[in-house]
Amino acid sequence: MNKIIIFNWKMNPASAKEAKQLFSSMPKGANGLEIVVAAPFVYLESLIASTSAKEGYGGLRFASQNCFWENQPAGGGAYTGEISPIMLKNLGVEYVIIGHSERRNYIGETDEMINRKVLAALKVGLKVVLCVGEPERVSSGSAKDYIKNQLEKDLSGAGKLKIENSIVAYEPVWALSTTNNGRPDTPEDALEMIKYIRKFLISNFQFLNPMVIYGGSVDSKNIQSFLKYKEIDGALVGGASLKKEEVKKIILNSNYDK
Ligand code: PGA
Fold first, then answer.
1. How far apart, in whole angstroms, are the C-alpha atoms of residue 26 and residue 21?
2. Which of 36, 61, 90, 214 has the fewest Cβ atoms surrounding its Cβ within 10 A?
3. pLDDT for the residue 56
């Protein structure tokens, strides 16, 4: 199975011109690797349009960083300022990140809201990238309890929908580059949690072959140490995804067969 790297641009860059430049500097694809760009909503359409076959960006996929929990016409469309999953699907977006810790913490997204978003996105065939992660560094047992609780709530009712292509991103909040000065979790601890998450998804949500990835201060120097484990299916990269040279090196160093 291919590994996946999701580059989360967060609320960057400030202009469409810069977005285009950042995007064009990315490698167009890599063997054994699926590369996903999670750009802000406002840039997605033009970036997707620029990947027409003639430009040869066949290896790149797109994610949005959020979506709303209703789809038209069921929700009536009366949600000023929101973007529905069906809008994203119709635009050519393949993945949607839901439950990122920055949205949980700064915007106040609750597990209930996240669950509604997950269900709405799955309903229209988007692949969900559900982010989970404990806020503080705690014992392994407490961290697992925390994650179990998040998964139970966030994925409640999802077993009946098409969840098989979705991804869970384990992102310990304390290991994000913005909160921990670029110090990631240890690959061994991340591996242990990822194995736990996979087991939980199989037994509770009937996933056949869940993809579970790691996020938190991933860069070109440490990516190999995570991806070398067959159980770690990929990485969610934040801060480093804005640095053109880093992106190239991350993709290069993700060649875990070497
Ligand atoms: P980071 O962010 O790589 O900057 O730690 C990861 C994320 O927020 O998804």
1. 9
2. 90
3. 56
